[in-house]
Every structure is written in structure tokens, then in C-alpha cells.
Write a structure and sequence with these properties.
The termini are far apart. It contains one helix and eight strands; from the N terminus they run H-E-E-E-E-E-E-E-E. It has a single domain, classed as Gamma-B Crystallin, domain 1. The chain is of the alpha+beta class. The longest helix is centred in the N-terminal third of the chain and has 21 residues, at 2-22. It is globular. It has one helix at 2-22; strands at 38-41, 50-51, 62-63, 83-86, 92-97, 101-108, 112-115, 127-130. Bound molecules: calcium ion. Residues 79, 96-97, 124, 126 line the site of calcium ion.
């Protein structure tokens, strides 16, 4: 049975190697929001597809109408945001209607993040700007 033992040892060794070398990323690895950017996530807890508007950068620029924009997966960004990361040093305001209007808005402080799940503004955000 010596060869069987050797085979078993080889299988164990291969299994160990593959376990070490594969070390897969999670299937839906969260998009990392870059420094000085604002990122709107479709999923809760900063997961899923994301909209990181190029024009919102360090207290400059705004997005008056999310319906004209898309997430990275191509779906329309309007009324889909469930979590937001603000990696800028300025306050971001996100509104439930276009052109910074609507029945509610959320304030995301400098270098902070917010989960909208189970709030009235979940899947409602339609515009955003710096305060
Ligand atoms: Ca809306």
C-alpha cells in the first residue's frame, strides 16, 4: 500500500497548493470608491454595481439628473441607489428628485458613508451635489 500512501500524500499536497494559490476573490467583490470621489451603490453596504460620477470631485460638480446616467453594469442609475460613499472632504447632499429637489434628501458628511436600506430614500435618489 506504499504507492497508495504516496498518492494520498500527493493529492493532499496538490489540494493544499491549490487552496493556497487559488484564493479566489469574492464573486462580487465590492467596488472600491477612490479617494476624492463620491460613489452611489445599487446594493446595501456598498456592494453591487456603482455610479461614481466623474464630475463630482473635491467640492466641484454635481449630478442634476441620475436618469441620464448609468451604473457600471449599464443599468439606469435613477432611483436605484441604496448606499453611498463620500470620499471627499466636503458634504454631499443627495435628493429624491431631479435638480436637487424632492420629498427628502440625505446628507453624507466628509469622508463618510451611509446605508439607505430600509429608509424612505432607498431606491429614490435622483440628483446629488456638494453642499
Ligand atoms: Ca427619485
Amino acid at each position: 500500500m506504499g504507492s497508495n500512501k504516496a498518492l494520498t500524500a500527493l493529492v493532499v499536497a496538490l489540494t493544499t497548493i491549490s487552496a493556497v494559490t487559488v484564493s479566489p476573490q469574492p464573486v462580487s467583490a465590492a467596488y472600491v470608491c477612490a479617494d476624492n470621489k463620491v460613489c452611489f451603490y445599487d446594493g446595501r453596504n456598498y456592494t453591487g454595481t456603482v455610479f461614481a460620477p466623474q464630475e463630482m470631485y473635491n467640492n466641484y460638480g454635481s449630478v442634476p439628473d441620475f436618469s441620464r446616467r448609468v451604473f457600471t453594469n449599464g443599468t439606469n442609475a435613477n432611483d436605484r441607489t441604496t448606499s453611498i460613499i463620500n470620499n471627499t472632504g466636503w458634504i454631499v447632499l443627495a435628493y429624491t428628485d431631479v435638480r436637487f429637489d424632492g420629498f427628502a434628501w440625505v446628507r453624507i458628511g466628509p469622508d463618510s458613508r451611509i446605508n439607505l436600506e430600509h429608509t424612505v430614500v432607498d431606491n429614490q435618489i435622483s440628483s446629488a451635489k456638494f453642499q
